[in-house]
Every structure is written in structure tokens, then in C-alpha cells.
């Protein structure tokens, strides 16, 4: 059986690999405050985004300031929660919890963008949330958590879930900006907001990076920018239904990198929980894509009447 690796699929495969590399860089920097990592990452991102805007002749600050600031603020908070979970939880556990973001996006969309959630989708959401509980039960205590009480693991799991929830707010802001702002402007507001926020936070907790830390920080910025660029290209080159599911390869990257570089191994419950999370999110993606395809085949009302 021949696998058709179209340019869009190749770009998405590269994107998931680059995001996995970014996750590993963040975990290597577990001794630095999360906001400090975001600060350095934001410097790299704001420069790269501004250069891209200037090259394409796009005004960087847009017009829908309230929504753009909302997207940047929620994105910064979500990133802080995600980095904290990456630093204190096993790599695959943190990535698994982040997969709840599409679910929160759909649920919050009921009120924010007036998009209905079907009964079957609630079942898929329940599978994913149940999976997260199993992941926590079967995850090992690593790093700082190894010397802390079990409640610390629950705390950072809750922080990860909060990050996924706030990501849902951010994605809904992006959805409302669709067609109203250039995509590069939306991307630009992320570091535009996160840079000053992280700078203020760093005033209260700062640790100078030492030695290899600078390399990991640089890698974090390069891998993030490359991942966002290749992901954008993938969505431009290929149908969403073909490339979006490839995001879930990040789970297998996380398992492999966690085992090779951080000696992370899991119990049977954790693997079962990861499978449930992926099953719930995957079924929801398949179901919504099926609904979209069905809606696209329904003729306009005037054609039906005629």
C-alpha cells in the first residue's frame, strides 16, 4: 500500500516533530521559571513575526484591538500553564492534557461563537476527560515531583487542564478574528502581549541562564517559530481533515523523547488513559468533519423549494 505524502502532509509531519523538539527544550529548562522561558521565547517570536509582517507589507497592529488583545492575553496565560506542566509532569502526560484544548474550544464556542455541540460530542468529551484521570493515576513521579507529596502531581495536572481551558478561549478569539485580520497579525499579538507580561513576572523571579541553557532557549524559539510556520503551510496546502489528525503524532514523539532523554516510563493505566484521550479527541474531529461534509452537500433553501 502506497502512502501519498503530499507537500501538505510533509509540512504537518515536520510541524509535529518541531513542536515535540520545543517541548523537550522546555523540559530541559525545568530549573528556570516558566515565565523566564516565555520571555526569551517571546523576544525571538516578536522579532521573527515583525520581520515577516514587514516583508509582506502588512500593518502589524490590525484593527480589532479588543479581540486581538484577548487572543494575546489568553494565549500567554495558556502558554505559561503549559510550560509549567511540561516542567513538572512527564512529557507525555503534559502533552496528553493539552489535547483537551480542542474540547474546551468546542464547549466554550457554544456561548462565544454560537456553535452547537451535538449529543454524541459530549460522549467523546467524556472519554477524553476520563482518560486524563487515568493518565494521572498511572504516571510516574519525575523531577521535582519525586520528592514532593502526591498532591503536587494533582496541582500541576490541574494547571495543565487550566492551560487547555484558556487555550480554548484563545482559539475562540482566533475563530472570531477569521476573515477580519491577517493571520500574521494574529500571530504577532501573541508575543506582543506575552513579552511585557513575562517581563514583569521576571522582575519577581529571575535566574540567569547558565551554559547550555542558552542553547535550549534558542532551540525553544527556533523550533516554535518553525513549527508554527510549517503548520500554517500545511493548512494552506492540504484539506484540514487530512492534516489535522497528524497533530496527534505528538503523543508518540512525547513518549519516545520522554523515554530516551528523561527516563520516563508509565503504568498500564496511563497508557490506557492516553488512548482514551486520543480516541475521544479523534472521534470528535471525525464526527465534526462528517457533519461539515454533510452540510456542504445540502443544496440551498431556494433550490430545495424549486
TrEMBL record:
Domain EamA: 8-135, 158-283
Topology of the protein relative to the lipid bilayer: Multi-pass membrane protein
Record keywords: Membrane, Transmembrane, Transmembrane helix
Domain of life: Bacteria
Residue stretches spanning the membrane: 34-53, 65-85, 91-113, 120-142, 154-174, 186-208, 214-231, 243-262, 268-287
InterPro entries on file: EamA_dom, EmrE-like
Positions in coiled-coil regions: none
One Pfam family it belongs to: EamA
Protein location: Membrane
Alphabetized PANTHER family for the sequence: ACYL-MALONYL CONDENSING ENZYME-RELATED, SOLUTE CARRIER FAMILY 35 MEMBER G1
Protein name from the UniProt record: DMT family transporter
